[in-house]
Design brief:
By secondary structure, the chain is mainly α. It is built from 16 helices and no strands. The N terminus is likely disordered.
Length: about 425
């Protein structure tokens, strides 16, 4: 894992800035925003934890449990999924399958009616959606090293994250204008049909923006290998051999995977519980939550673009440490002086730092991958992340249960971010290895 790709493998990636595949790759992230921004953060998750399904504490804990189970399954299966995609050369096929499955799952969320009896159906769909989405993201991230160069990977990664946030802004704006009271589409509010219709819109949005990448990957030549027919047990043996090889030959890569697992779980927690906290603890209306989401995605997109350029200039480590420090400092005032004004100020600050940390973590690993093993390594990236993914939901739920107040779940998120920051301090940039 310590050997660098040979010169011929970098000829095409250095021309990637003008490659239509890069544009299609970026558009996929814009489409995926409908699941991340609308379904899991600002609309459907908020709807699912509303009084229509039970008390705030009950619904929050149910959602935390579902996401924790999904995280465990991702940790178990993601690296093998990426490994088998590498071996078969069918990365485009599996990206297509999981992207379309995610579209279907979002559409099915329309049937989650506002009643406590539908709570667990909603939790199940959102949790399975997280599982399928992560499998798609493994193959999506694995494309990054091949469509960029070592000198531009930070910028390309940042553009992808920025496109995701921009897609979230536009999608949330359309939701606010078309579906939320008084929606221009005139969808009835009875039985929350207007909110449930948002799930159908999210599915359509993801489908439209995923198609350019799906089509381009589908037309790419794909190598065939007997390795894609190996049994699951053999795949885990090969995975273990990869982990041992990393431990012996590139221990810093393995350590980064573990450290990033912790802080990425904290970053995910901000988006997972951000809208829930805004509505449940700070008294935001649905319109206010969506307005905050639009502004939050705007500053997050700007942060991602800036972070991407700084990544290539200063190195991903500095970007990650600076961002994590800002996140921890921005979270503390929410507990010391909780108010809507404080949530606006600190929440937007949190959004500013999340994007650069996410983008730099992805590019950091991309600088270390060897051609032909991207899927497996990014699968490990997902696995290590999901191996720690119980931390934020569990601590969030624990502090809510112990204090009886949802707002103290913020402390659980902040502690995970702080731990991730401490783990990152000894790590050096890939260029300094």
């Amino acid at each position: 894992m310590t050997s660098a790709p040979t010169a011929p493998t970098q000829t095409k990636p250095r021309q990637a800035a003008k490659n239509p595949l890069v544009k299609a790759w970026i558009l996929w992230d814009a489409g995926n925003a409908s699941f991340n921004a609308i379904m899991t953060t600002f609309v459907f998750a908020v709807y699912l934890t509303s009084s229509s399904f039970g008390s705030t504490e009950e619904t929050s804990q149910a959602l935390s449990l579902g996401l924790a189970i999904a995280g465990f399954l991702i940790a178990l299966l993601a690296p093998v999924s990426g490994q088998r995609s590498d071996a078969s050369g069918r990365r485009g096929f599996w990206l297509t399958v999981n992207s379309l499955l995610l579209v279907l799952i979002m559409a099915l969320c329309f049937f989650v009616a506002p009643s406590p009896s539908y709570l667990w159906l909603g939790v199940l769909l959102l949790s399975v959606g997280n599982l399928v989405n992560e499998f798609a993201v493994v193959n999506y991230n694995a494309l990054l090293p091949s469509i960029s160069s070592k000198k531009t990977i930070g910028k390309v990664s940042g553009q992808g994250w920025a496109a995701g946030y921009l897609g979230g802004i536009v999608a949330l704006g359309l939701v606010l204008l078309g579906f939320i009271t008084p929606g221009l589409l005139g969808i009835p509010e009875d039985k929350a049909y207007n909110i449930r219709a948002v799930a159908l819109f999210s599915a359509l949005w993801a489908l439209v923006f995923s198609l350019p990448l799906i089509i381009r990957l589908w037309n790419r030549p794909q190598k065939q290998s007997k390795e894609d027919r190996t049994d699951l047990l053999s795949s885990y043996r090969q995975l273990w051999a990869t982990v041992v090889r990393l431990y012996r030959q590139a221990p810093k890569t393995l350590y980064f995977l573990l450290a990033s697992a912790v802080f990425r779980d904290g970053l995910n927690g901000i988006f997972t519980f951000g809208g829930v906290l805004a509505a449940g603890s700070f008294g935001f209306s649905t319109n206010q939550v969506l307005l905050f989401a639009i502004l939050g995605n705007l500053v997050a997109g700007a942060g991602s673009l800036a972070g991407g350029y700084l990544d290539d200039l200063l190195g991903p480590r500095r970007v990650i440490i600076f961002s994590l420090t800002g996140l921890v400092l921005a979270a503390i005032p929410l507990l010391l002086a909780p108010s809507q004004g404080m949530f606006w100020a600190c929440g937007l600050a949190l959004c500013t730092f999340v994007g650069p940390a996410q983008s730099a973590a992805r590019s950091y690993l991309g600088r270390l991958t060897v051609q032909g093993q991207e899927g497996e390594i990014y699968g490990l990236y997902s696995t290590t992340g999901r191996a720690a993914s119980f931390l934020t939901p569990a601590l969030f739920g624990l502090f809510v249960a112990v204090t009886g107040q949802q707002i103290w779940g913020i402390l659980g998120i902040a502690l995970v971010l702080l731990l991730g920051l401490l783990l990152m301090l000894p790590i050096k940039d890939p260029q300094a290895r």
